[in-house]
């Protein structure tokens, strides 16, 4: 299980259509916000519009957002028809060694978020949902690494 300061574990997971996604490549040298969720998790669903808003505001050099669905592809596809999001999604099967656990989610609680710096190291971990407007403050609190987030090419 990864902890703050450690390198993000190598994660290659399928997207909702079955295509493999390497999270390190997806980040493309940018900071990465990984949010573990499930379609049946009410707090997860409630925070998704906030994550979508944040992701859309990032532009080409900002934080890359990815949703890590601990759910079935069928459930996620049905969910996205009701609640579309513009950020990338990957899937994993919930369990004692799922990707959220490997990212430090020891309790297995959802939602669970991880901020990975542009250098691939874990900067912050959060159990529970983001409130409206909280994501920017949470990421900003990762200073001095937050400075990299704003200026990294």
Could you give the topology of this structure?
Blueprint: E1 12-14, E2 20-22, H1 23-27, E3 32-37, H2 42-56, E4 64-70, H3 73-82, E5 88-92, H4 99-102, E6 112-116, E7 122-127, H5 134-140, H6 145-151
Parallel strand pairs: 3-4, 4-5
Antiparallel strand pairs: 1-2, 3-6, 6-7
Structure write-up:
Helix content is about 30%, strand content about 25%. It contains six helices and seven strands. About 35% of the residues are buried. Residues about 145-153 have low confidence and may be disordered.
Short description:
It is found in: Cell envelope. This protein is an alpha/beta fold and 153 residues long.
- Would you tell me the overall average pLDDT? 90
How many DSSP-defined strands?
Answer: 7
What is the chain-wise order of helices and strands?
Answer: EEHEHEHEHEEHH
- Structural class call reads alpha/beta
Estimated share of beta-strand residues = 15-25%
Strand order of the largest sheet: 5-4-3-6-7
Shape: globular
Helix content: 25-40%
């Amino acid at each position: 299980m990864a902890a703050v300061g450690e390198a993000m574990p190598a994660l290659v997971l399928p997207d909702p259509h079955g295509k493999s996604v390497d999270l390190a490549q997806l980040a493309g040298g940018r900071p990465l916000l990984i949010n573990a969720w499930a379609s049946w998790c009410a707090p997860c669903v409630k925070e998704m519009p906030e994550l979508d808003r944040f992701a859309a505001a990032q532009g080409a050099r900002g934080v890359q957002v990815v949703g890590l669905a601990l759910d079935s592809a069928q459930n996620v596809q049905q969910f996205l028809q009701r609640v579309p999001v513009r950020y990338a999604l990957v899937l994993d099967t919930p369990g004692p060694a799922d990707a959220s656990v490997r990212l430090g989610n020891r309790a297995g609680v959802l939602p669970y978020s991880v901020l990975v710096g542009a250098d691939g190291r874990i900067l912050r971990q959060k159990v529970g949902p983001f409130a409206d407007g909280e994501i920017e403050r949470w990421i900003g609190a990762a200073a001095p690494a937050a400075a990299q987030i704003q200026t990294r090419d």
